[in-house]
Amino acid sequence: MIDATRGLGLFSLEDHVIVVTGATGGIGAEVAQGLSAAGARIGLNGRRPEPVEELTAQVPGSFALPFDITDEAASAAAIASVVETHGRLDALVCIAAARDRRPLAEIEPQDYRIVLEANLVAPFHLARAAAPHMIKAGRGRIIMMTSLAGDFAMPGDVAYPSSKAGLAGLVRSLAVELGMSGINVNGIAPGPVATRVNAGLVDDPQWQAMIARTIPLQRWAEPSELAGAVIFLASDASSYINGQILTVDGGASVRLFPMD
Questions:
Q1: Which 3 state secondary structure label does DSSP give 258?
Q2: Full-prediction pTM beyond 0.85?
Q3: Is 112 one of the annotated active-site residues of the chain?
Q4: Quick check: 1 pLDDT over 60?
Q5: Among 67, 160, 220, 232, the one annotated catalytic
């Protein structure tokens, strides 16, 4: 008889309790659906209660967890409430992020700080709140949604790449510090994803030509194509993976010079 625990069973998240921030966004909602299908109970986070409640009705095994990730006290209280109610916290998936596409001369320091607070400081606070519960359990997963922009940049987009580069550094730091407690910390770096935020770019002929020229698969990623990577890193299938950034970019980062 085949031992399922050595095959697809490694990817099972049955009875796992997982918090997903930014769950009401395009990537977050697809990730939540994927984690649910793998058997997890998911705390769905978003700033506004109404969209969170609507999504909760669509995702089996989920529960609403509305709070502002940039509010340190609210984040800590939300994590504590999950452990108190469900008795455990197996994984934290940080997807929520801010975007402000403006060049250096146009973005004010306060605007830059807003992006850093959402994309770097908030995940730090959330990891800090989740870590003690995972340490007590002797295991856990922390997954940060970084970006291909953490390693590459474009003109007119100062804040986002620097915040995501910092987040990749946070992944490595936490992996080293928390690994001894049985906690795996990893990141996922998507390339261009066809989310609602990027809808205008997806339909732009100039961007369409650039995607076709620079990405070997010649298309944008669909939000659902990030779910598998999250399931993998949240499951026992990734038990010896720690401090890594899994790039999901259609091959963009390995193409040297697009000649056509």
A1: coil
A2: yes
A3: no
A4: no
A5: 160
